[in-house]
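For the sake of transparency, this paper describes our internal protein records without simplification. Because each token names a local backbone shape, the row as a whole describes the fold. One such record is reproduced below, unchanged from the form in which we store it.
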Amino acid sequence: MEEPKYRIRALRTERTVTVYQAYRPAIGLPAARDGRFPEAWKRDRMTWIKPSFLWMMYRSGWGAKEGQETVLAVEITREGFEWALRNACLSHYERGFHADQKSWKRQLREAPARVQWDPERDLHLRPLPYRSLQLGLSGEAARRYADEWTVSVTDVTALAHEVHALVRAGDTEAAGRLLPREEPYPEPEGLLDHLRIQAPGPGPATPKLKSPVPSNP
């Protein structure tokens, strides 16, 4: 079956979803040790989370890029993840999908989260024809991510290096067996309607932000 162009694939349980980030050791190592982000982690800045392990490998150069030497698997609540998606807007203007640039810019200013759909990657980090979700969190969403939604933080740098070594050795079969099992995310109805780009239609409605949920997901 052909993979849909826009779909979330992630390692998940009944109540959590795993996303990936990469940091310098001064941030990443304490986060993994304590299972939460340290005070030095800036909660007033936008942070991007990625459910795709291979897209994180592409972004961090298998954990080799400066400032991204520590790769983290961050397990967060599905309730928090879905709150961010419901309150997100697309990071770029899409003609025919948004009503106009002015309304999109207003959403971008007001939304605590934003979404990009970037090409998913294979084991050689080559782009695939379908997209991977990147979720940017700022303001309330970033604070809640760090202090409320996070269930566990695991250092997976060694896994990144092991998979990379197998790929470089030409053993993609063994490398593939080590990858996290990322399955289609069970989307509640309407979760991505304002984020999944559709072909232009008659009279497109302006995507609206949903009302926030209570502050303790």
Summary: Residues 199-217 have pLDDT under 50 and may be disordered. The first strand starts at residue 9 and ends at 10.
